[in-house]
Amino acid sequence: MEHLATLEWPQLIALLERYVVSPLGKWRLEEFARQPVPPSLDAAEESLAETAEALGWLRQAEKVGSGHQPAPAPSFSGLRDMRPALDRLRLEGSVLEALDIYHLLGLLDRAGETHQRLGACGDHYPRLATWREALDGFRPIVKELSGKILPDGGVADQASPALAGIRRQIEQNRQLVHKSLERFLRTHGQEGVLQEDYVTIRDGRLVVPVKAAWKWRIEGVIHGASSTGQTVFIEPLTTIELNNRHVRMLEDEQREIQRILSEMTEQLRRRVDEVAAAVEALAHLELLFAKARFGREFDCIIPSFCSEPSARLQLKRARHPLLEDVLRGGDQAVVPMSLTLDENCRVLVISGPNAGGKTVALKVVGLLVVMAQAGLPVPAEEAEFPWFEQVLADIGDSQSIKESLSTFSAHINQLKHMMERATSRSLVLIDEIAAATDPEEGGALGIAVLDHFRAGGSFCLATTHLPALKAFAATGEGVENAAVGFDQETLSPNYRLTVGVPGQSAGLAMAQRLGIPDSIIDRARKAMDPSGEQTVAFLDQLRLQLARYESAEGDLRQAEHSLRERESKVALEWERRETAKIRQLEQRVEELIARFEARSKDALERLARSEAKRRLVADAQVRAARGRRELREGFRTAAQSALQSAAKSPPQPPVVEEGATVRLSELGAVGRVTRKLADGGFEVQAGSLKLRVTAADIAEVLPASQAVDRLPARVTVQHSRREPKELSEINVIGKTSEEAQEAVDKLLDDALLAEVTRVRVIHGHGMNVLRRALWQMFAGHPLVERYYQAEQHEGGAGATIVEVRA
After folding, report:
1. What is the pTM of this model?
2. How far is residue 344 from each of residues 142, 347, 390, 478, 482, measured CA to CA in Å?
3. Which residues contact 24 (CB under 8 A, 6 or more apart)?
4. What residues have CB less than 8 Å from 342, skipping those under 6 apart?
5. Is 244 in a helix, a strand, or coil?
6. Which residues have CB under 8 Å from 41's CB, separation 6+?
7. What angle (nearest 5°) sits at the alpha carbon of residue 101, between those of residues 95 and 106?
8. For 401-458, what is each residue's pLDDT tens digit?
9. Which of 392, 368, 501 has the alpha carbon at shortest distance from 449?
10. Which of 666, 720, 577 is nearest to 684 (CA)?
11. Helix (H) and strand (E) counts in the chain
């Protein structure tokens, strides 16, 4: 486990400790820190499944009004580490201290509460519910023993009738002693022999302070003197017997207290194994919910494991939790990283500028692997790992003066150690492989070492500045390049990891940014090998092409997303319209049926007037009822069948190109598409009217023979010649409600056509009649996006701002 310190595992434990609230939980966390990884994949997956349930519980509890609202998560605050008390409890004949019993009972009471909460959510969190058994069955003993021990460790009077009786006698005797001493003080108070007019306790007995010079005047027993010798403490002869009785009663009290504690200890001893199991269960659950709280705080996910031969290490937008915690304090965000290694490529060579995040990338992979195997959620959007039997890491400077090891020597020793131990189930992390020596020899050594790990099937990540290793990763089988980014404009790293291209070291640019004079930088550039400059230029060009490709890919994804949204909207709009048509048809049929029933009823009533035709009337009524029922059922069946059939194959939206002639679904107008808009809509010229429409507004694309560039017959449009500035405000003060509504409605139509999106309506204060009428109209107006009272400088309550729907 020597790699844990290298991967900053102790710092992560310190971060996790924030979410542990009790001494019992801190003990469990210490145990976890020493041995975090379970012995098998099955145990790790079970631990992750438990953590997933705890994390789900916490996140579900945050959702107000959700269908399943679980009980609050178990509380662990105040739980003490009772293992030392349990060790004493196992010693036959031992008696626990009163405070130990008090805290044990508190722990068992919390066990019962946790048992109840787990039971309430057992159907949703079955793995957590399995711990209920260890927390059950303590309610009787808690009920019997609770209240006998006080929070300060004292034994309560009600602990036993005998103790209550002894304490009553002690109190009565104490009062007798006090009265005797008060009489003594009154008798001798005027004689000047008393140092102070009060009673105190010495050696467990009540005494009075007497001046040392007058001690011969008082009959009694001296129980010591003050530090100055000026005062002696005397127990008067008259109170000796009362004090003796008081001491005997105190001894009786202690014997009864000891008997009570012994009896309570024995009751707990009989269930010591169950109590120990409950302590272990509470400690386990507290650590589990601490993991979950950490996962919620850092927006983590539950990782998954894969196995041979399809082993894969995949991270999507992964973050280093310690770095994120530090940056949060400065209101900064971590730049996430993504990578994939699988059976086709298990070796990744990371290059790029100093301080660009290469070492952080190694630590992110290593730390997240350990976190996943330890049952911790990981800060990423997706995470999948092989099951690694070991993580071998050489990160940082390991030189040792004591052992006469240079940086390079220590690094070689580490590589030798890792190559001897690495298997196909190893994760190898190497920082600055084969550095600190001649670049040519270092590059050759680095290639050989990486090829050794590749041949052995290890997953390996290494950082480098050596060109030979970048070239090896670009051409070698099973090896891939990755780069941490560098911003050429700011001459600073951007910390973004890009897989597939080598990184530029940018040493001169970094030196220039850090203040090295330009003259020295220019001299260094002239001294560089021309082939190195060509390599740098080639890498810059490659990165530029990659950036363009990623940008184009992003645009394509956005276009595909927009297309799916438009198709979904078209299908929903079509279904809405068809449903509305069927509802109208159903309503029409109901009206016809109602008219039929009314007429048939009238006819039947006329027939019923004739006694001789009663039988005919009865038959007619039966046939009429049957006909109405069959008519309704037949219509509903046909309507539902038509709707279901149509829903299975909604019409595809028409393909619309610029210059096409289209018919608009709402107006029935025919127009020509003048251009496509960036948001997926179209600009259509219908006569003198220019309209902005969506694909859903186009009913059909007309063939060329039917194309007409005019509006339908009997439809005319008067184009507004008013300027947009004229349409941004209207004053309706003095108009009636109807006049004001009509004027404002006309203004909104003109504003829509002129693409005016904000209108101020001035209606004045008055009795608010106009304001109420207009706001009532705005509430249901199809062109109003929203409306609200104007700011004070725009008229306040005397005006309303209306935002026109685009």
Report:
1. 0.62
2. 61, 9, 21, 6, 16
3. 76, 79, 80, 81, 82, 107, 279, 282, 283, 286
4. 310, 311, 312, 313, 314
5. helix
6. 305, 307, 387
7. 165
8. 344 356 778 888 889 999 999 999 999 999 989 887 888 888 899 999 999 999 999 9
9. 392
10. 666
11. 22, 23
Token pair belonging to 603: 């006819």
**Which contiguous run of DSSP H or E holds residue 350?**
strand 347-351
User: Phi and psi for 660 in degrees, rounded to 5?
Assistant: -75, 150
734/737 Cα distance (integer angstroms) = 9
- Residue 489 has which token pair? 């404009």
- Measured in whole angstroms, the distance separating CA 621 from the mean position of its chain's CA atoms is 68
Q: How far apart are CA 44 and CA 36, in angstroms?
A: 10
Per the model's pLDDT, the better-predicted residue between 39 and 203 turns out to be: 39
721 exposure class (CB count in 10 Å sphere: 0-12, 13-18, 19+): exposed
* DSSP code of residue 69: -
The maximal CA–CA distance of the chain, rounded, in angstroms, is 142
Q: How far apart are CA 716 and CA 616, in angstroms?
A: 60
pLDDT over 90 at 782, yes or no:
no
Three-state DSSP class for residue 789: strand
User: Between the ranges 469-483, 577-591, 595-609, 616-630, where is the mean pLDDT highest?
Assistant: 469-483
Residue with the two structure tokens 């400088």: 793
- Block residue for tokens 């109209």: 777
Percent helix, strand and coil across the chain, each to the nearest 5: 55, 15, 30
**Three state DSSP letters for 303-347:** CEEECCCCCCEEEEEECCHHHHHHHHHCCCCCCCEEEEEECCECE
Distance of CA 607 to the CA centre of its chain: 77
The answer to whether the CB of 478 falls within 8 A of the CB of 345 is yes
Q: Give the Cα-Cα-Cα angle 684, 689, 695 (nearest 5 degrees).
A: 25
Please name which of 91, 104, 99, 101 lies closest in space to residue 24, comparing C-alpha atoms: 104
